Amino acid sequence: MKARAPLLRCAADVRTIALLTALTALFTVQYGRLVEHPSLLPLTYVFVLVPLVAKHNHNHCRTFRGRRWNTAFAMWLTLLTGMTTTGIITAHNRLHHGENQTPADFVRCSLVRFRYNWLNFFGFFFASAFHMWRHRPDDLADWRRTRPLLYRQAVIERVVVIGFVVALLAVDWRSTLNVFVGPWLFGQWFLVTINLLQHQDCDPASSHNHSRNVTGRAINWFLLNNGYHTAHHNFPGVHWSRLPDVHRVLLPEVDPALNERSLLVCVARRFIAGEGWSGRRA
Known about the structure:
Blueprint: H1 13-31, H2 40-47, H3 49-60, H4 67-81, H5 89-98, H6 117-135, H7 139-146, H8 148-199, E1 213-214, H9 217-222, H10 229-234, H11 243-250, E2 259-260, H12 263-272
Parallel strand pairs: 1-2
């Protein structure tokens, strides 16, 4: 008898599913007041970063073999983040990867030009969101003509997430704001702001020095190797589990100053101490 192919394209995504299940449980027990403990909400703020990374990974390299499973997974990610999974395709896949640090890139570092880098750190999200709001192309109109399956998925995701949020608010608006909306907003802030850390003071014209990497094992285990950013930009279709290997191959060509062990230490050095930042206005 012929063995059935596994649902997942890569066995490493068992970790993705496990982490997303943990976040789903955190949302459920807090919203339903099934378990009350002061540690649960801070954990939610940490775990909400996982579906954002998983959404990014899924849009670059599909998680499941079957189309229906991928559609269902994208819907799960939509509900866990409060934002559609298809919504980042144009901004990230096409414009950030295809037009990195150009005027077409909604998360280009030049959107913030304060002399003090901590102001750039706190202002970047708002500058990027405003720029995206003003200039974002009409995805749905384009996909309706050129990619009808993606168009249908995008419409369904929007309807479902709006209905989901309305239902949550109708049942318990206080818990909705506390348990869901707070972590969602933090996650979106992190998703956008991390681009400043990953690309500020790098060389977008370079084949290897266009991105900053965070190489710590613990942070990369939890955030699905999102720290290996040079490898990801050079090979965006490579599954996240292979990025450490790609990083090791590229390492001799990468400026050592662009490799950081700790995310928190890097944030403190660059955006609090201002190390490496000269107040450049370009």
